[in-house]
Structure prediction request, 342 residues.
Amino acid sequence: MSLDEMSPGRNVILPAKSFYFYIIRHIAEMSDHPRVQQRHLRELKICDDIWLGVFAFLAPVKLAFKMALTSERFDQLVHLHIKNRKWALGVLEVRPLSKGIGAQIVKYGNGRSKQLAIPRRPPPDNLIAFQRLTIAYIDRSVVAFLRRIRRLFNTDITLHLNILRNQNQAWNILAQQLCPLIVPKAMTSPAGEMSDERQEASVDQMLSTWLHIPRQDGRPKVLEYRQLRKPAVVRKLLEELKETFFNASSPVKYIVVMHLHFAVASFDLENERSRERLAIQFFGDDVYLIGRGPIEREEDQWAEWEREAVAGNWKSVIQIAFGDEDIGPLQSSAAGPSRSSK
Prediction:
């Protein structure tokens, strides 16, 4: 029997998923007249728990302007659903204002983009996650915004770094302002200007700390580098990862994605104490993958994680993609010149 052949008055046993879709379709075809809506909903003799499950599939606009207005019962159910529902931010990008000085948020979804002001208040408690947050501009309002949502960074995030190594002010701000917010257990860097070597050491130490903290869901951490242009920097990074690997006594899983325009020697190492393997491989299109995981692992699952890491199809992604010219007024003297002075 098709859904078209069903009516609210018939006794039909449906699988749970099909039952939900049947109700949703019935709601979508309801008249816009309030009295007709009330009659249709009365024909669906459904308990409150089922309605709350159905609400998860409906758009907030339909809930607020169609369901909640039909009766006092549905008004209370919609209010309860909105109050208890867990929300996640979608794809966001922090950008400079197109006119004037300051920051804005651009929200992407359904092939559209929408410009929003930087929120000035903490998010509600039922906001629990985000899909992707790109930081393409930084000023004091952005830092304050990140502080307000920093509890979202306690989840299992993925880091994408897209900063050129010669952008000294950007790396300075990454070390002093951002890493302490987005990298758990990272030590705060000393305030003030730092030398290039000190900047690199500070950021690398924080990222290494973050990379070697296991995710709670059992998936590997993912760290992506897009602007590694010096072979010496890459060699130093690889040697540090190897040293930490050989000294490890407990396991951790991670995938480091590096976009390189030069070749890197492959290696495949084992740590018998932690029963782990550390290897680098050429993935294609100037992409190298460094993977650390169990010696005995499910290869199909690991290959899927690698493909997701390269494609960027992970949730809770923070992409840091600003340079020295994308720095606005900051309270720290390390901020450098603002956009208005350029």
